[in-house]
Amino acid sequence: MSASVILALLGHLWRQHRRPLLVMTAAVTLFEFLTTRLAPAPEEVSWLSGLAALAPPHLVALAGGDVAFTSPGGVIALGYTHPFFLLLLGVWAVRVPSSALAGEIGRGTMDLLAGRPVTRSQLVIATFVGFALGLTLIVFAAWTATAIGLSLRPLGVTGGRFVGVGAMAWLLFASFGAVSVLISATAREAGHAIAWTSGVIATSFVVEYLARVWKPVAGLRPFSPFAYYRPQQIVTSGVAASDVTRLAALMAVAIVAAIVIFRNRDL
Amino acid sequence: MSAAAIETSGLTKRYGPINALQDVSLRVEPGEVFGFLGPNGAGKTTTVRLLLGLIAPTAGSALVLGRRVSPAAAISRREIGHLPGDIAFWPSMTGERTLDFLEHLSGRRAAWRQELLDRLQLARSDLARRVRTYSDGMKQKLGIVQAFQCEPRLVLLDEPTKGLDPLMQLAFYELLLDLNRRGTTIFFSSHVLPEVERVCHRVAMLRGGRLVSIDDVDQFRRSMPRRVLVHFREDLEAADLAAFGRVVASAARRVELLVAAERVPALVSRLATLPLQDLLIEPPRLEDAFLERYR
Q1: What is this model's ipTM?
Q2: Which of A206, A219, A236, A8 is nearest to A90 (CA)?
Q3: What is the pTM of this model?
Q4: A72-87 pLDDT, tens per residue?
Q5: Helix, strand, or coil here: B25?
Q6: Chains A, B: CB contacts under 8 A, how many?
Q7: Which residues of B are less than 8 Å from A15 in CB distance?
Q8: How many angstroms separate the CA atoms of B30 and B214, rounded?
Q9: Beta strands of chain B (E only): which ranges?
Q10: Which of A17, B97, B130, B267 has the smallest C-beta neighbourhood within 10 Å, fewest atoms?
Q11: Residue A52 pLDDT greater than 80, yes or no
Q12: Strand pairing of B67-68 and B59-64?
């Protein structure tokens, strides 16, 4: 019973979001593939490093630090910190949870769902699982494009080095998605949930960036989930277990809070 | 005494300073068609939503089909059909997909769907269209089908005939009676008095969130005063008839009275001695009682 309800709810989410999901997946695939085509060859990297040395520090910080320009892998990892990639994943993290809980309430269709033998927990879990499956597809497509691009144009780095980058991109936005589910579980309109979640993601991004380039606010950095997403470092030295733990903890806390709040609120 | 289909005890819902529902205690027996009457804002929709566990009571409790209502008590909703007052669907879904999806969520087979579609004249071509193209009446029909299709033991209907044309209203009343004959309990919230009178066994009246009365519809009708319209051939003092009931309106030759059922024979005998031109005794209507209680 429980599994069939979750499957029915997942099918419902798929019908609502499949087109944007496929468009986002195609866009991310193309973008990451192009990154491998545009990345400098190993012999060109020194030229890029010299250019980076002349660039304003805040611009280098936005790219993820000097390491982004010292190897082809670092440059390709830029594709995973680029605003286009982050924006698409952010849109997905906002869109699905906001329309699933707050959106159903605002639209008036929540009564049809919650008036059936569906528990509130199932509604929250299905929302998160549906979002996470879509996120998996987008991130997997991004990594596949990188891997295919690197196999077609050897740059001294393999697609395998980007598995960790993709996994951490998934974890970062799964955490934001969980926060989005939490906000949606408290809201009555999709618009409110979208505004709040977008605000949280944008603020996190800005705080992390400012904390890197402006000493007075450097202490705020640990409060931004973006602080634990470092593609360039992952390519060179692998995934840090502490980053995984922190993002996973944020995701778990947000989902548990969403379930508790949604189970006890009036619809 | 068998378990009630619905039993509430001191059910109360407050939104800040607003008392949406106050201390409502009622019992609906299995197999009953129970009308829940009240003007807009009386608390009818709040009651239905409380019974489904969509909102939590501020005080009091409710049992539905023998189980305590709460948002977590999903299993009790397996045997409940629900038609919301302002029904909304997913605009990009077709009617058929909507019914399939809601059937899956119900966990019961939609054994009655085809018959409902036939009786409400929803064609297969209608169901193949997206809901966004539906008229209000078609959406209401789809709402009725989704509420009834899995043959629930209890249906909670909130203003169910909204948007239906008179012919469809008749078809709907027939459906209700058939469903009731199969043993389904029907909880019917409405402010359309004639339809409640037509289909309900008992009726509860709400006012400002409080339960004003619960009555058997037939007994209630029998206890109601009859409206008597008298037209005389010449001018008469209406006060002459005041001894038989309450004079509601009077003109030179016309008098309108509300007369208790047992006083009607005496009034007729008296009228026979007067220059009577026309006499109309209307059967009692729930509407009169409703207006009397809400005035």
Answers
A1: 0.87
A2: A206
A3: 0.87
A4: 888 899 899 999 999 9
A5: strand
A6: 85
A7: 92-93, 97
A8: 16
A9: 6-15, 18-28, 33-37, 59-64, 67-68, 80-83, 154-158, 185-190, 202-207, 210-216, 226-232, 246-250, 254-259, 276-282
A10: B130
A11: no
A12: antiparallel
